[in-house]
Amino acid sequence: MPADHPPTGLRQRKKADTRRALSDAALALAFERWLDNVTRQDIANVAGVSLRTFNNYFTGKYEALAYRQTERMRRSIAALRGRPAGEPLWTAIAHAVLEPLQADLHEATADEDRLPSRGELAEVRKLLMNPQIREAASRELLEDWRDAIAERTGTDPENDMYPRLVVAVVRAVGDAAMDTYATADPPVAITELIRTGVASVAAGLPEPAKPGEQRGRRGGRCRDLRRRTKRADAGLRTRVGRHPARGTRQAIRTQCRTKGQWSCWAGCPDAGHAGPLSEFQRR
After folding, report:
1. How far apart are CA 121 and CA 114, in angstroms?
2. 38: domain CATH number?
């Protein structure tokens, strides 16, 4: 069955339902008993089928656990192919990745932004660390992702690096989001982590603002972040700090503090957004 088409016949739908039931049973047992204590027979019993039926669908418990994720990846590929042609690539990817995940989460919890319990997080950490689960969830679908990206971007899936690079980045976003989800304290929704990850990639992975960093009036970022308040005088405030290029300590008078704005150092690379300085004083 092609990766981008859902089952349509009655028999195919029944098979898909059985796969989902077995995968859901495996995940529920992993949360309840821990993965090491779960057997194929346990999964079959919870799903209401025989061990032989389980073996007809999956080679083992790891493949059963990974099935839901694999199925979501297939639906994501289909969703990407169905996005509007003029839509930016990373916007289309974000929708394609999130829509199947949100649908599954809503089906399971009626809340796609639900936060996990600490017990669930502890077991998720163990599942994520298992290389067999990771391999089962991704090995079949990387080429399908590559082909879908190539179709959208007009590149050659066999010879061009670009579609392979995009697939690698999408996979990295998913891995980073899941790793963060499993260790976040306080917990955070997986959907929010994926949104943030894709948005960061689309923006070119800009460096996060450092603690205490302030932006200039034109949105520029002053590179000297080590200033401290020295004194206030006649509605003006003076700050003292070390000029990043000259290595000298200087005091400058800023704009009126009632405006809530600060000037930058003279000679600062970002000084284009600073007003004229009225005073220098070396220390």
Report:
1. 13
2. 1.10.10.60
107 and 180 share one domain: yes
Over residues 151-202, the pLDDT tens digits come to 999 999 999 999 999 999 999 999 899 889 888 888 888 899 999 999 999 9
Its domain, for residue 16, covers: 9-58
Q: What are the tokens at 1?
A: 């069955």
Overall domain count for the chain: 2
Segments of the chain assigned E as strands = 228-233, 236-242, 249-256, 280-282
Q: Are residues 72 and 198 in the same domain?
A: yes
Burial label for 84, CB within 10 Å (0-12, 13-18, 19+), is exposed
Helix (H, G, I), strand (E, B) or coil at 237: strand
Partners of residue 281 on adjacent β-strands: 251
| pLDDT given at position 6 | 52
Residue 243 in contact with residue 265, Cβ under 8 Å? yes
d(CA 270, CA 260): 18
Q: Does some domain include residue 222?
A: no
- CA 149 to chain CA centroid, Å, is 19
| Token pair in block for residue 67 | 């099935």
Domain boundary among 170, 187, 203: 203
- Mark out the alpha helices in 139-278 (DSSP H runs): 142-153, 162-183, 190-202
Using left for φ > 0, alpha for ψ between -120 and 50, and beta otherwise, residue 239 falls in: beta
Q: Taking Cα atoms as reference points, which of 221, 280, 216, 212 lies closest to residue 248?
A: 280
Evaluate if pTM is beyond 0.70.
no
